[in-house]
Amino acid sequence: MRVCTRTYRKHDGFDYQIHCQRPRIPLKKNKLEWSGQVDSSVKMSNMIDQWRDELMSRLQKNDEWDLWLEHFLESVTDADRFKSVYELPFIDDVITITMPESSKCPDDSTEMREMGNDEFKQKNYAEAFEYYTQSILKAPAGSEELALGYANRSAVTKEEKKYELCLKDIELALSHGYPVNLKHKILERQGRCYYELGLYSEAAKSFEKAIFKLQKAKLKKEEMETREKKLNALLERCKDKPDDEKTLKGSKYMDPLPEITDIKSEKFPCASDSFSLKYTKEKGRYPVATANVKVGDILVVEEPYCSVINHKYLATHCHFCCERAEVPVPCSECSNVVYCSLKCQEASWETSHSLECSILPLVTELESDIAQLSLRMVVKATFKYLKEFKEKYGKSNEQETEVENTCSLGFNEDGVYDSHDYWAVYNLVNHTFDRKFPDLFRRTVMAVYLLKCLEKTEYFPADDEECSQTDHIEVGSHILRHLQMLPCNAHEVTEFLIEPGEMLTSNSIGIGSAIYATLSLFNHSCDPNVVRHSYGDKCVVRAIHNIKKGDEIVDSYSIIYPTMEKEKRLSDLRRQYYFECACLACKKDWPMYEELMNVPPSFKCDKCDTPIGSLEGEGGEETTNDCENCGHSNYVAKKVQTIVSYESDFNTVFSQVLSGDITKQSLSFLIEHQIRLENWMSRPWQDINKCQEAIKQCYSIQSNHYTLSKKKK
Ligand SMILES: [Zn+2]
Ligand SMILES: [Zn+2]
Ligand SMILES: [Zn+2]
Ligand SMILES: [Zn+2]
């Protein structure tokens, strides 16, 4: 048979780059010092390393070192392990905690605002925005500095014609006690923004208020009259103008959260009805499709049990929902975190930040999302819940739960697997038995440190009757458990960073981490059939291949075959996740992207999916390819013709998408094309990969994304 190269040679001329999703927490390429056995996925700061070394040297000098070590090694529970470090007599001499000073300061705030004013005068708006934001972060709650900061920042967004953002800042300034004698100015600005947005009735209201507030302004009579005249003229302009139909936009940095295709599953409220769970001894629990699923179908939309923002993005992304904060709102007590809105500020305070606020710098100093998440998990669960936990779930916490990893584990009393239920995330695998002493000891030191931080807050009741030393150890054991569970289960929260005009170098970055009960059930494949995207800290899972009823739904732990050599994939997966990958791409040694270009296309048997060799039928004459496996006669000429007829459209759409020109139509064209190719063609084949990458690109732009400002030349 002859290969029809004319049909399948590609001329896109692009140096095609796979946009690697970086979903699970990626392996950090730290040096494996100390013993070579340590899982490097948790970045332990020098601080932890120093304490670990100091503890170790004191222990080894001790006569009872052997006994201690034996006890630690024989510990079956995290509580025992935690206790043996937490109760060391010299622990407080080694792990010392200095509480950070309050980061609010009115003088700093004023200084920053004045620097902002200088930049503003020179029309350096980006710099002015930054200084004003700093001034807002530094301003104590209830201070005039806070309101002034917001008001001045609104002047920047007004000049930049970002009217919606400007309105947000004005609202914040007004709700934080902006000085009454200046209010007329900011109300005028508010009116002008509404006017520019075509919301004339709102604009009129603002101008009326401004006129009223003029009475309170300490102005000379003349100036007062001039201003009043001006405001009345503005008011007059709004009269008899119908409002534009548009409403104020939501977030600029992501599309509205999409919904699950089909109906929701009863057992898994965040997943589609086509999603179910299976269990085998070899594989443990894994999700399967209970119906045929098409490319583009949304299988899961999950909220995390909790999420954290990476320490590098604390000043730019909301500490509660992970969205990029357009006009950052600080915590009212500290300058360490920002929120996208007052709503998130309040919600964060209620669920965790009231306790974490004073100790957050101690935790972020570790530069580890895993550490932050472990602590957040026990804070969110609450002391009361964890105290009752042992009574309620009894044995589960005493034995390591990798023993009974059945399908029902983590479900609540109603048989529902609930993403917001601590019990569901508690039961995810933690690989304690695969860990060696250095790894476990190091994690225990970190858990002790985190618990000692927590002890500086009001997490634990002061009353001895309500809270004993054992209760502290119990909470510590939960932290230790999460420090082992999260490296294999937490997912990155990502943001797609767009370089204007350079889509090929645009890429997803990890801005935080989150723990999702349902997503953690997915096994890895280097050829995943789903793809994940972050919307705030929520995660949307879409099919990226057609999935047949009964097939396993597989995800990738940030490692895919087109971009990484097989040996490297296998060793990385072994090191962080403790398993041998046996996906099709690994078993059949599929070529990486570059070599994939040389793989000849091949159709597959209509009946049994077996590849039926190269192609024939260029001129449309109908010949058959008989399947070697089942004997079925396959007619391919029509299919060849169809694919040929779509080729030029595909190339056009592909180039458009890669250049950042993405429309609804291009996405639906790509999905249709991908479904067609997958139904007929045998994989791996380059066009299927290309089509898939283009589809992912379209989704990336709908999810968390941010366009970088153009580089100054
Ligand atoms: Zn938010
Ligand atoms: Zn705070
Ligand atoms: Zn594999
Ligand atoms: Zn066949």
Structure description:
This protein is of the alpha+beta class and 713 residues long. Among the domains are: 1-17 and 599-713, no CATH class; 106-238, Serine Threonine Protein Phosphatase 5, Tetratricopeptide repeat, CATH 1.25.40.10. It has helices at 5-8, 46-61, 65-74, 78-86, 91-94, 106-121, 125-138, 144-159, 163-175, 183-196, 200-213, 221-238, 342-356, 360-364, 369-381, 383-393, 422-426, 437-454, 469-489, 566-577, 584-587, 593-596, 637-658, 664-680, 686-702; strands spanning 275-280, 284-289, 298-302, 306-309, 329-330, 338-339, 491-498, 507-515, 523-524, 530-535, 538-543, 554-555, 624-626, 633-635, 705-707. α6 (106-121) packs antiparallel against α7 and α8 runs antiparallel to α9. The longest helix is centred in the last third of the chain and has 22 residues, at 637-658. The structure holds zinc ion (4 copies). One zinc ion is lined by residues 605, 607-608, 610, 627, 629-630, 632.
State the main characteristics.
713 residues, alpha+beta, Serine Threonine Protein Phosphatase 5, Tetratricopeptide repeat, three-stranded antiparallel sheet, 15 strands, 44% helix, flat, binds zinc ion
